[in-house]
Amino acid sequence: MTTNHLVLSGTVIRSRHFDSPAGIPHTVVQLEHRSQRFEADLPRNVYCQLQVILSGERFKSVADKLKAGVDIQVSGFLALQQSRNGQSRLVLHAENVELKN
């Protein structure tokens, strides 16, 4: 059995909403994460930005609240997404989102 599950908290940098051609609502959020972890017994500052995709009606109630500056915790699965220009990037497909403000 393989596992693909990530939980990440951070601050929304920007978000956009759109409906797919099939009429499915999507919200795309750019999430900024900052923390400090210990690695090899030394403190390490961690910083990353990750695109998060919320798909479907079940996220409609929270989607309007996801504006720049809002802190959230999101859990879901990672997938490779290829853009129209052929560039690939890792994105997080949300299964659960919690507002932290």
Automatic annotation (TrEMBL):
SUPFAM superfamilies in UniProt: Nucleic acid-binding proteins
Gene3D superfamilies found in the cross-reference section: Nucleic acid-binding proteins (2.40.50.140)
Single GO MF annotation: single-stranded DNA binding
GO biological process, one term: DNA replication, synthesis of primer
Annotated keywords: DNA replication, DNA-binding, Primosome
Protein's job: Involved in the restart of stalled replication forks, which reloads the replicative helicase on sites other than the origin of replication; the PriA-PriB pathway is the major replication restart pathway. During primosome assembly it facilitates complex formation between PriA and DnaT on DNA; stabilizes PriA on DNA. Stimulates the DNA unwinding activity of PriA helicase.
Record note on quaternary structure: Homodimer. Interacts with PriA and DnaT. Component of the replication restart primosome. Primosome assembly occurs via a 'hand-off' mechanism. PriA binds to replication forks, subsequently PriB then DnaT bind; DnaT then displaces ssDNA to generate the helicase loading substrate.
The name this protein goes by in its record: Replication restart protein PriB
Organism the protein comes from: Shewanella algae
